[in-house]
Amino acid sequence: LSPLFLLQVEQVKLLDRFSMSNKSVTGTLYLTATHLLFIDSSQRETWILHHHIAVVEKLPLTTFGCPLVIQCKNFRIVHFVIPRERDCHDIYNSLLQLSRTAKYEELYAFSYNPKQKETERVKGWELIDLSEEYKRMGVPNANWQLSDANRDYKICETYPRELYVPGTASKPIIVGSSKFRSKGRFPVLSYYHKNKEAAICRCSQPLSGFSARCLEDEHMLQAISKANPSNRYMYVMDTRPKLNAIANRAAGKGYENEDNYSNIRFQFVGIENIHVMRSSLQKLLEVCGTKDLSVNDFLSGLESSGWLRHIKAVLDAAVFLVKAIAVESASVLVHCSDGWDRTSQVCSLGALLLDSYYRTIKGFMVLIEKDWISFGHKFSDRCCQLDGDPKEISPVFTQFLESVWNLTEQFPQAFEYNEAFLLQIHEHVHSCQFGNFLGNCQKEREELKVKEKTYSLWPFLLNEQKKYRNPLYNPDFSPELTLLEPNTASFNFKFWRNMYHQFDRSMHPRQSVLNLIMEMSEQNKQLEEDIKELEAKIKQRNGQLDTVPVKECPRSAPPALKTPPCFKKQQPLIPVNDVVRTIEGSNAADNRYSEFVEEFSKAEPAVVSLEYGVARMTC
Amino acid sequence: EIHIKEPIEKEVNPRLLPGELLLCEANMVYKYIQEDGSSRGTYGKLVCTNFKIAFLDDHSASDDNEPQFKNKIVGENDITLQCVDQIYGVYDEKKKLLTGQLRKYPETLIIYCKDLRVFNFCLRYTKEEEVKRIVSGIVHHSQTPRLLKRLFLFSYASAAPNNTDGRNQTVMFDTLEDWRDELERTKGNVKYKAVTTNEGYRVSEKLPLYFVVPICVSEESILKYEGRGIPIWCWSCHNGAALLKMSAFPKDQDDSTSQTHKAFLDGIYKTISKPPYELLKTDDLSSSLPSLQDIQTAYTRFKQLFLIDNSADFWATDVKWFSLLESTNWLEIIRRVLKKAIEVAECLERQHTNVLLIEESATDLCCVISSLVQVMMDSHSRTKSGFQSLIQKEWVIGGHGFLDRCNHLHKSDKEEVPLFLLLLNCVWQLVQQYPPAFEFTETYLTVLSDSLYVPIFSTFFFNSQHQKDTSTSGESLKTQSGPFRFLTVWDWSVQFDPKALAFLNNPLYAEKPKPDKSQRKTARFKHQRQLSLPLTATKSSTKRGFFREETDHLIKNILGKRIGKFINSSDEPPNSFREFYDSWHSKPVDYHGLLLPRIDGPEIKVWAQRYLRWIPEAQLHGGGTIATTAKILDLMEEVQSLQVKMDEEHSQAISVGVHSVPLLRNSARLSSLFPFALLQRQSIKPALPTSTWKDLEDEDDLVKRDDEFVDPSGDIS
Predict the structure, then answer these.
(1) Residue of chain B minimizing CA distance to A395
(2) Which terms under GO biological process does the entry name (chain B) (predicted)?
């Protein structure tokens, strides 16, 4: 036993949970300080980060051994059968210990070391600069100003230091308004639409109770509508179901009374709370975890889980928001209860629909940085980074990614990034490998010194953006500020197989059309190069001697495309297997490594693979 | 109320096909645009001919805005009489089904079509006389029983000189040669022979003139029971195993008859079970698949989801879409049929046994399964001509009763079963799961399904080859014009011009390459799963003393409480079907080899193009699969032009701009319903439909469903 492994068990079986014939592979299970590693007899490796582990369960002993089931936050479920109960028990207890983190400082991000220079690490954190982003939107300007009210987190701890507010909102108004809003989260700018001069603003619910009012808050809203020269009224969207909002009044919270605020149009949009969302996803996973699922069971399970309806509700809200801005040029103030879950979903999706910048790889990072990270979506609580209250856990960010995925499905040409990009982000929101998503708000991250002690995810993703490019992306499809108009009929919402069955390889199609297209694009580039090469050659020859045409070909052209529109020959370059399925990455930014030895193994067998693991571990 | 634009009286005449006669017409008919319940629409003339119902307005006369994809025979506002599904009349806001004799005439006529279009014609401004004539005319000609000879097919065939040379790559299977070629192609000719026993339809009128049986089956036995109890060859697998079908003896027979039948069958089974024949496996489809009645019921419910009167209806069904879909059971039937086909493929491919499909007539579910098995196993059937030949072999010549099953003559509703549509739906699942494996597109399947209702082609308008033969020759004696020469649907140029035909070809299809055995073998080997265990002794692991003993099962509660539930470690013995399915899916796909569909619930999808194409609410601007296709076509064009450029460079030819006009240039904002509905831009959706679904549910129920639902005042977030 290598000292780097805490535990090693041999003759462990890994079952394929969807295989109808109960297939399994046998191999050795290792535990390291950060990962669980399984290497099967054909040297295929399965790496599971301890932070990803959500549940470990021992099942009743069978004749083959002791079954151990591990469920991960990235929806991987592995089912091991360990020959000896004693070993199973050891692994079980170790995993319980290892996957439970009490302090932020123990998270992987603080020990993860990709062997990068310090200057590069620092530069990585500078990649995304939100003040640049506000400049891009066109603020500050005559109507909107940068406020220093929260510079020291005095007004609101969960907001960022830099906030943009209407030009006419004075400090007393800000302070007054923040006192009337839950957790001090007063209305601030989230997105500014240059052409319409309309804004998306966000806040938390007012502390209105049954009759309370606050003049400063009323002034604040008025300042927002006045900051929009093209439209006098503004919308206030309460993203909660009306019933929940009413119930909140009893606790001294609630929603805006239209009579007290001038020129507002109030609207509920009915997105359910985090508890409903959590149990909805649980139901969905239960349904989709069934072997040999019939269509009818799938459909009824899908309906009763309500998951896709919730996704639809989120997108519907975003569409409502977008219409107010694009059609009526009206500003919109969005809130829910505390303004960090549903509000983040709706504001960010709204901006994504309005502004094509957010449909680019860099723009999407900016969007997440802005509406989720800086405005204090509670990543730590929602993703359970530390051992905490299970009732705080909820797949709010997953829903956001799924909504975006549905949009990419509806508009294949509109997005620069592909599904793999979304999946990779989801992976790292839970991996705690990078500093970006640690903690619940900016203040907490500053206290943790993430920018000094950890790495940022974004430069890693940008570095390997080739993997995340959508081959169908058409920049002409989305000139600046073109509105995306999704169709939110239920029919258009699909089950996201590659998210929920990401690791169940038997559930995947063997090859995607996208791979083919990527290949074609590559070939085009090759052909273009050939032409250049030929041209150069011709020039050269013509210079040398004025003789007859060049007949020889420097490199035989790819045979595949001789006779379009149907390819007449199979293209040798096209991978006929799924090893290149892009969502299964294997690189520095990927802690899933790869299940496919074919993809990265360096010809040498086991030893290398083990070293690989060791290298990881010592990082 | 309706805002009446003063209609411009302009003489518009219907474009008639040869042999087409105008039967009745009505002017000042107002056709609603199918949209959000508004009363927008156009005025025009509604006509009924012996071929179609057509609405003619000013727009149809003008040639501007010519769509890229247009059917030359059936226009946008044409409904062939066979395409009419149901006709409803609206009387004082109430919808009534119209059949046969009418006493009162409706204000609005709603026509539901079998291709899922819905037409709303308002007759309020039409002269009463004309209303009577047109309504009774339409109902009579489209909804009442008629004689075969009254089908437009015959008028057309006698009026239109058939000049198409019929040189089509599709094998028609109406000659002995065709069968022999097919035997040779599949290398079935060693053990099977094409027989001429049925010449003159001596054996049965239901059987084709020529068919194939095992060599050991004698002519006498074929003749004995009109071909019943005789295994008829469908196809031979590369390993020699064959797919056979047999029409069974009727079940309710007295003892002695069934005894003799049984003895006869035993004899047959005995002869074809011994070498050189493979082991025989029989499969009685009438008991192993849903009944025809179930299929018809499911489809009737299913299509109802898409026959939408107006926007309000659409959003009403949208609220509970998934459960509505479930309640139709149609997708589940598709799944079961696919599963059955995989089972058959497994027997042929892996178990090396012959499979004999048995059904009362051997012309219904037998056709579906045998065709599907061939599409999955024989890459030739995934080419256009191969697929068409397959339809000819198994369905048209094979004797599927299209006339009855489609109820073209309105003789008996009970006979109507959408079996051919079921096949197309199953094939569509394969097409969308493995796009590069098929030479044709889903659009091809869609227009093929539409062609079921176009009675200028004989393909889908006879019950059997015998019926077609007798109808053809019988008539010819009277008309003295020689036998009819019917068109076949496989001549797609009759319906589409070359530009539109391009949409039927799959740009991603790669033709079968020359086999490169060495390469493929290594590839396959690499991916084979190693199932054998290395025989090393289990080492006992060192115990790590410093870990405390833990007892709680739950670490974190992000996803579920009872993950054990996910794991149904069934101890049932692995059956061969499952192993076959699993092992195929764990290997890379050879698009020219065996193709097995995925049949997990989430993989079976609704054929959106066929079913949603006329619903504006389902439209996506600049989105949908067409956006992908457009991009692919763009790329291919780029490749092509680069190729041309390269060739030019090589030959130093003076560049002559041979720029083919791309089909979908500037396609960034095409409708997702393209190439079908060419609808105007719509408002994207109703003002605020969110949470409407909640209204359907009791709040209490919600709480009960969700044991974690804390009281709303604790609505943190």
Answers:
(1) B558
(2) phosphatidylinositol dephosphorylation
Report the pLDDT averaged over residues B334-345. 96
| A199 and A86 within one domain | no
The domain tally of chain A equals 2
Please tell me whether residues A213 and A74 are part of one structural domain. Answer: no
Mean pLDDT of all residues in chain B? 79
User: Which of A446, A475, A504 is the last residue before a domain boundary?
Assistant: A504
Residue A550 lies inside a defined structural domain of this protein? no
In whole angstroms, give the CA distance from residue A406 to residue A421: 14
Alpha helices in B305-418 (DSSP H): 311-318, 321-328, 330-349, 365-377, 384-391, 402-405
CB of B151 closer than 8 Å to CB of B408: yes
* DSSP character at residue B45: E
pLDDT score for A387: 86
- Boundary (domain end) residue, out of A504, A521, A545: A504
Task: Name which of B192, B218, B183, B182 is nearest B203 in CA terms.
Answer: B218
Q: Is residue A553 part of a domain?
A: no
Is A432 known to be catalytic? no
Tell me, which fold does domain B22-145 have in CATH? PH-domain like (2.30.29)
d(CA B338, CA A356): 42
Q: Is B312 on the interface with A (CB under 8 A)?
A: no
Inside any domain, residue A584: no
Instruction: Spell out which residues of chain A touch residue B538, defining contact as CB-CB under 8 Å.
Output: 10-11, 83-84
Percent of chain A scoring above 90 in pLDDT: 62
Tokens of residue B665, six digits: 């240039």
What pLDDT sits at residue B687? 42
Answer yes or no: do A477 and B622 touch at CB < 8 A: yes
pLDDT at A20: 66
Is A338 marked within a binding site?
A: yes
Residues A53 and A135 in one domain: no
ipTM above 0.95, yes or no: no
Please give the model's pTM, rounded to 2 decimal places: 0.84
* CA neighbor of B144 nearest in space, from B83, B100, B186, B96: B100
Of residues A286, A336, A564, nearest to B565 (C-beta): A286
Strand-pairing partners, residue A333, are A201, A236
Instruction: Check B555 against A100: CB less than 8 A apart.
Output: yes
Read off the pLDDT of residues A307-343 as tens digits, 9 standing for 90 and up: 999 999 999 999 999 999 999 999 999 999 999 999 9
Q: Which of residues 396-435 of B touch A (CB under 8 A)?
A: 433-435
Mean pLDDT computed over every residue of chain A: 84
Domain assignment of residue A566, yes or no: no
CA nearest to A99 within chain B: B555
Identify which has the larger pLDDT, A582 or B482.
Answer: B482
Task: Of B681, B563, B575, give the one whose Cα is nearest residue A67.
Answer: B563
In terms of domains, do A272 and A186 share one?
yes
Tokens of A379: 């990543």
- The active-site residue out of A66, A156, A203, A336 is A336
Cα distances from B450 to residues A535, B84, B424, B453, B460, in angstroms, run 51, 12, 11, 6, 11
| Residue range A103-120: mean pLDDT, rounded | 91
User: What pLDDT score does B167 carry?
Assistant: 58
How much is the pLDDT for B618?
81
Measure CB to CB from residue A77 to each of B542, B566, B693 and give the nearest one.
B566
In chain B, where the domains are located: 22-145, 281-314+321-474+483-504
The answer to whether residues A147 and A60 belong to one domain is no
Same domain assignment for residues A290 and A360: yes
Residue-range definition of the domain harbouring residue A158: 127-504
Are residue A419 and residue A483 in the same domain, yes or no?
yes
Residues A278 and A390 in one domain: yes
* Of the listed ranges A51-60, A544-553, B286-295, B656-665, the one predicted with least confidence: B656-665
Nearest to A488 by CA among B247, B689, B343, B505: B689
Does A342 count as an annotated binding residue?
Answer: yes
Q: Determine which of A506-515, B257-266, B403-412, B685-694 has the lowest per-residue pLDDT on average.
A: B685-694
